[in-house]
Amino acid sequence: MPPRKKKEPQAPTPVVEPTKEKSSRAMVVRVDFTGATEGYTPLEPGEYPAKVAKVELSENPGKNSGYHSLIFDWAIIGTNRKVRFDYYSLSPQALWRLKSVLSTLGIDVPDGEFEVDPDEIVGAEATLVLKVEEYNGKENNKVAEVLPANGFAG
């Protein structure tokens, strides 16, 4: 393999690079915190155009339901922001939520058995209604509702 070319860091993104110096520690990391913010600030509650960035099956079933969930990560269009961990339980009592979001994303969902391919969902667009909730002492965005992409009131 030919040697990789080193990319030039772009400000204000913090630069993280392992050093080549020998040390008693396994690795020393040099970090430039120039431009680093004080912390995450959630988006204001409201409607945002978004697309599905990632869909995955939960590693473990829910403690109360015993069923796995599909976990959606959403990318807010026109920003570098994401809303992560939007859970859709596969429990029979909660499947209406998954069916609703899939239908909203333009996927024809039958009344019977259906195979969901997460790769076919990624990139689908919608309008997210976001709210702000506190979790572990920090404010985060949570998806309150998923509307059709053309439902953005902007």
Topology readout:
Blueprint (H helix, E strand, L loop, with lengths): L14 E4 L10 E4 L13 E12 L11 E8 L5 E8 L5 H10 L13 H4 L3 E11 L2 E11 L6
Antiparallel strand pairs: 1-2, 3-4, 3-6, 4-5, 6-7
Protein described:
The chain has 154 residues and is mostly beta strands. It has a domain at 46-151: Beta Barrel (OB fold (Dihydrolipoamide Acetyltransferase, E2P)). 9% of the residues lie in helices and 38% in strands. The protein has helices at 95-104, 118-121; strands spanning 15-18, 29-32, 46-57, 69-76, 82-89, 125-135, 138-148. The strands form two sheets. It has a five-stranded antiparallel beta sheet with strand order 5-4-3-6-7. It has a two-stranded antiparallel sheet with strand order 1-2. A hairpin with a 2-residue loop joins strand 6 (125-135) and strand 7. The model is unreliable at 5-11 (pLDDT under 50).
Q: What's this, in brief?
A:
By secondary structure, the protein is mostly beta strands.
**Low confidence ranges:** 5-11
Task: Report on the biggest sheet.
Answer: 5 strands, antiparallel
Number of strands: 7
How many H/I helices? Answer: 2
The CATH first-level class of the domain at 46-151 comes to: Mainly Beta
The CATH topology of the domain at 46-151 is OB fold (Dihydrolipoamide Acetyltransferase, E2P)
